Amino acid sequence: MTHDLPLFPLDHLPLFGQPLASALTIRDRTYNYQELNLRIGRLAAWLAATDLRSGDRVATWLGKGEVACLMPLAVVRAGLVHVPVNPLLKAPQVAHIMGDSIARLLITNAGRAATLTPPRNGEDYSVVDEKTVLAVLDDSSALSIPPLPPSTDTDTLAAILYTSGSTGRPKGVMLSHANLALGAASVAQYLKLTPDDKTLAVLPLSFDYGQNQLLSTWRAGGCVVPLDYLTPRDVIKACVQHKITTLAAVPPLWVQLTEQLWPVEATQNMRRLTNSGGALTPSLVKMLRSIFGERTDIYAMYGLTEAFRSTFLDPALIDANPTSMGRAIPFAEIMVVATDGSEAASDQPGELVHAGPLVGQGYWQDSQRTAERFKPAPIFSKYGGTAVWSGDTVRRDADGLLYFVGRDDAMIKTSGNRVSPTEIEEAAVESGLVAEACALGRKDERLGTAIILFVRGNGDDDGLKSYLKTTLPNFMQPAEIVWLDTFPKSANGKLDRNMLVQRLAA
Questions:
Q1: Which of 80, 70, 84, 53 minimizes the C-alpha distance to 136?
Q2: What b-and-e string marks burial along 305-321, b requiring 16 or more CB atoms within 10 Å of the CB?
Q3: Distance of CA 62 to the CA centre of its chain
Q4: Is residue 56 a contact partner of residue 81, using CB atoms and an 8 Å limit?
Q5: Residue 480: how many CA atoms within 13 Å on its side-chain side?
């Protein structure tokens, strides 16, 4: 399969905007593209002047301020690799990511830094306060460095995004310049973004979906308005204040937003809403339509961090097909593979397999899990090469629209986040209050899936809840803790999760 691929290094994204056009609004200050490039250059020059070597990892653990927005581009301009850390994570998860990625530098704020324990044996990284970096950006004497030349190898590693695995600790997905730059071009194309668009970036920039709020808007030459919101009302107020045209969210946030009163000033400029991280429901589509009307396009999307994004539904089809995942996005080949390895027939369930240049480079320092997920494309693939075998069962109807059927692994998708049950279970046992633990998901109207934690221990419910609140981020907190005297076991002595699943369904 051949495409006229817009191959360019990730660092070149800001160059697509007109020099004096608005590019980034941080609180009460707006930077144009000329200023954006200058500040990226200053940040890159500062990084290049450290003792970091080419290919070293630089982590950020920040809210959606200026530093977090510029880092994805400044890091690659300095020849380094970006490791964005979800600001909702707590110190134990950050310690794992720092150790696993072997990052040499962590940029965060004083409050977060104070929660970290000193690096353990074998770890060697420096912690820099965000304020220090902000001072660099405002230093007019700082030297900038030139952008990466057009000949830059676009297969060079640009970022490692950490996502929870179905077992064990989070794993780092390796993404190249091409993965991220083509992802930005693809989304800008099918969303029909233009230079006069304004995107309200409410999702964490550590997620591929969240980071692409920045990259796709800049690819189109538009303006991004990052927002760390506290309540849904903050989102609505920002839409009014900045005359937002593009809003991306996950289903639980859409549910909260539809429960609010939206003034005309908040909806009159809205051109498009985008959803990923979970499926929209017919009722939610109707509620969004009732608020935003026919003039606003609603985009349903499906994606994998391992391949960035796979499908989108043409907004003209969403009212009649509200549960569909749509078709392949530009630069992606999406196949439905039957159990015998052949291409599944219409309406026959099969595994979703994604091939093409958006496929990542595997999991960082994890050849075993890479081999399980990144495998040769099916023989009937037009792209060929390595493909991501999603583990998700889907079906394609006679019109070519895809529909989600089920997930093969034990992941819990809650509030738009993929959560590893093993990570929650390990935290519960580490509390010393629990001997055994099993985390499962239960369908929930607001969260998508609620986390139910079964435990066997001393019954100290308040103590366990307190420990988990200090150890795990909010989106990993169990909605309910169920104490058991004994856990059901299978014939081979292992915990019988299926018995607990049946209990939830009863």
A1: 70
A2: bbbbbbbbbebeebeeb
A3: 15
A4: yes
A5: 12
Q: Find all residues with CB under 8 Å of 209, minimum gap 6, and list them.
A: 203, 248, 250, 276, 277, 303, 309
The residue type found at 495 is L
One-letter amino acid for residue 375 of the chain: K
Structure tokens that stand for 270 in this block = 């809205």
Lowest mean per-residue pLDDT among 179-183, 278-282, 300-304: 278-282
Q: Which residue reads 């690799």 in tokens? A: 81
- The token pair at 66 is 């200026």
Domain ranges of the chain: 412-505
Report the alpha-carbon distance of residue 47 to residue 362 in Å, rounded.
Answer: 26
Other CB atoms within a 10 A radius of the CB of residue 499 amount to: 13
Q: How far apart are CA 182 and CA 8, in angstroms?
A: 8
Q: How far apart are CA 265 and CA 54, in angstroms?
A: 48
Q: Which residue, chain included where needed, has tokens 């037009």? A: 382
226 token code pair: 């990052």
What number does CATH give the domain 412-505? Answer: 3.30.300.30
User: Dihedral of CA 72/77/78/80: which sign?
Assistant: positive
pLDDT one-digit tens code per residue, 406-418? 766 677 888 888 7
Nearest Cα to 274, choosing from 239, 249, 245, 302?
249
Please write down the HEC assignment for all residues of 188-218. Answer: HHHCCCCCCCEEEECCCCCCHHHHHHHHHHH
Q: How confident is the model over 92-127, as pLDDT tens digits?
A: 889 999 999 999 999 999 999 999 987 655 568 999
How does pLDDT run across 306-341, given as a tens digit for each residue? 998 999 999 999 999 998 999 999 999 999 999 999
Residue 91: both structure tokens together: 């110190």
Q: Helix crossing, 66-77 with 208-219: angle to 10°?
A: 80
Report the candidate in 278, 273, 313, 277 with the shortest Cα–Cα distance to residue 297.
273
Quote the CA–CA distance of 166 and 441 in Å, as a whole number. 13
pLDDT tens digits for 217-261? Answer: 999 999 999 999 989 999 999 999 999 999 999 887 898 899 999
- Residue 354 near residue 382 (C-beta atoms within 8 A): no
Residue found under tokens 């500062």: 46
C-alpha–C-alpha distance, residues 280 and 300, integer Å: 7
